[in-house]
Amino acid sequence: ILPAFSGIAMHDGWKPYDVFTDCRHVLCHAHLLRDLQGIIDSTGQKWAQQMQGFLTQALHLKKQYKGILQKVEQENLVTIYQSILKENQVYSSKPKKKGKQTPAQNLWNRFVKYDDRILA
């Protein structure tokens, strides 16, 4: 199905999906919220708590505006998202360690790298 699909593909961010270039990729907020909760439960990291609150707020706004947010609301959400990442910068200044990264590092990198897919 996906090789010929040209719409919006919402998924969990599994890397093999990226080979399908005719569609627009969007990351599923339910998966992100689940992953954030896992980081909160295991590490209590502040950025994960803030991002979880942000995504919850964004989903409420989307429902309130029936999926069509005004430009000012969209810009406000982008500003909040960027400020959470900027204020916390958990892993951005640290060089990549040899070996496997932690789940928190992987999730942080996903929020930094795929902001366009998360804020879609």
UniProtKB/TrEMBL annotation:
This is Transposase. It comes from Bacillus cereus. Signal peptide: none annotated. InterPro entries: Transposase-related, Transposase_IS66_central. It comes from the Bacteria. Residues 2-111 form the Transposase IS66 central domain. Pfam families: DDE_Tnp_IS66.
